[in-house]
Amino acid sequence: MLGAAFLMATSAIGPGFLTQTTVFTQSLASSFGFVIFISIIIDIFAQTNVWRIIAVSEKRGQDIANMVLPGLGYIIAALIVIGGLAFNIGNIAGAGLGLNVITGISPKTGALISCVIALLIFLVKEAGKVMDRFTQIAGLIMIVLMVFVAWKTSPPIGEAVIKSFAPDKIDVFSIITIVGGSVGGYITFAGGHRLLDSGTKGISALPEVTKSSVIGILITAVMRIALFLAVLGVVSKGLHIDSNNPSASVFQLAAGNIGYKIFGIIMWAASITSVVGAAYTSVSFIKTFSKKLNRNSKWIIIGFIVFSTLCFLFIGQPVKVLVLVGALNSMILPIALGVLLIAAYKKKIVGDYKHPIWLTIPGVLVVIVLFLMGGYTMIEQLLSLFK
User: Fold this and answer.
1) CA of 120: how far to CAs of 131, 231, 294, in Å?
2) Taking CA 188 as the corner, what is the angle to CA 197 and CA 95, rounded to the nearest 5 degrees?
3) Start-to-end C-alpha separation, the chain
4) Distance between CA 342 and CA 363 in Å, rounded?
5) Which residues have CB under 8 Å from 78's CB, separation 6+?
């Protein structure tokens, strides 16, 4: 249960998570608390619906989608694999940067070392258990260090609480970006697929599945809130944040050189766990398409990580590709959640299971809201590519 929760949470907490939270807190100040509050609500209903339906049907997201509409599962799988691969290039880059901050080695050397560490996780016999333990330890380290930095900046907590419910400004773009970063693309299915692989499935497992999904969201929320408060503390003091590396700047302003090293540790832990989560979940979307793919899934995961690393080492981060994939990523969640909600009422998929109305109605609302906001965001990002 905790392994799935931490896999989902640490998959969400990557280099983009750190940068987005810092940048939006700079622009929205205390009102960013409202964005976090709304995103937590959306995330909980999205994840709880998806994980429960996967557990009850005992099938992965792509197989459920193919049963609802033949061929749809292949499309969703392709989008998730392409998105996971593109973002994994960024994750490898973040891991390299993290080791660069900690040790002073070059980012490319740091990326190569991080790649080897990620590969070792999947090369051991009990890869699933090692992955669970690795993400749990890394997640706990990130939370402890982030809370420490937030405490050091002495943020205006009272103001943050008030603005979380009565914001000065509501920014739609920030909401869809944060939701997409928390449960978009492959992240939506990371924990659900991990539970299936561990044998946690069926109606009898629903209490455990629901609890695991909520824990995953709350872990992500704790990290987001701690980082928000850390940045808010720096902003409220009128200190200048370096726009070239805003997250590192916040940590350095908060705790000097020690803070900068803490940033390196958090950046590396966030990035390496996202590398593991992206590779594992992306491959879980194609391994059921044939017995050969299923048998060789471990080696496909390894190839996925190696290819991502080589792309970064020889090409760098393809910014326009990442922007385009990010736009598509924002649309995967409403489509996938909508398909799974339909599946929840098909007896051939879920048998005699009755999906709760109190989950269905909020789930449908999340689909509608995210589809509208995601469509708007995708158009905006696509237009920005041609400016």
Assistant:
1) 10, 35, 20
2) 90
3) 46
4) 11
5) none
pTM of the model: 0.85
Nearest partner of 177 among 4, 335, 12, 361, judged by Cα:
12
Q: Which of 352, 350, 351 is nearest to 52 (CA)?
A: 350
At 251, the pLDDT band (50, 70, 90 cuts) reads confident
Tell me which residue has tokens 């995953």: 216
Decide if 42 contacts 179 (C-beta within 8 A).
yes
Question: Distance of CA 44 to CAs 39, 87, 92, 171, 345, Å?
Answer: 9, 23, 28, 20, 20
> How is the chain split into domains, by residue range?
2-385
127-153 and 187-197 helices cross at what angle (nearest 10)?
140
The answer to whether 230 and 149 are in contact (CB under 8 A) is yes
**pLDDT tens per residue, range 173-228:** 788 777 776 666 777 888 888 888 888 888 888 888 888 888 888 888 888 888 88
Q: Distance between CA 115 and CA 117 in Å, rounded?
A: 5
Q: Quick one: how far is CA 365 from the chain centroid? A: 21
Backbone angles phi, psi at 217, to 5 degrees: -65, -40
Contact of 377 with 173, CB cutoff 8 Å = yes
Which helix H or strand E contains 148, and what residues bound it? helix 127-153
Kindly give, in sequence order, each residue whose CB lies less than 8 Å from that of residue 380, ignoring residues fewer than 6 positions away: 173
Closest CA to 191 of 47, 343, 46: 47
Neighbours of 2 (CB within 10 A): 16
Cα 314 from Cα 309, distance rounded (Å): 9
Residue type, 6: F
d(CA 279, CA 284): 9
- For residues 279 and 91, give the distance between their C-alpha atoms in angstroms, rounded to a whole number: 11
CA proximity to 234, closest of 141, 145, 147, 151: 151
Read off the tokens for 23.
């940048």
Query: What are the C-alpha distances in Å from 6 to residues 9, 57, 81, 194, 290?
Result: 5, 23, 21, 11, 29
**Sole residue written with tokens 């937030």:** 150
Q: Contact 47/191 with Cβ under 8 angstroms? A: yes
Fold of 2-385: Amino acid/polyamine transporter I (1.20.1740)
State pLDDT tens for residues 275-291.
Answer: 888 888 888 888 888 88
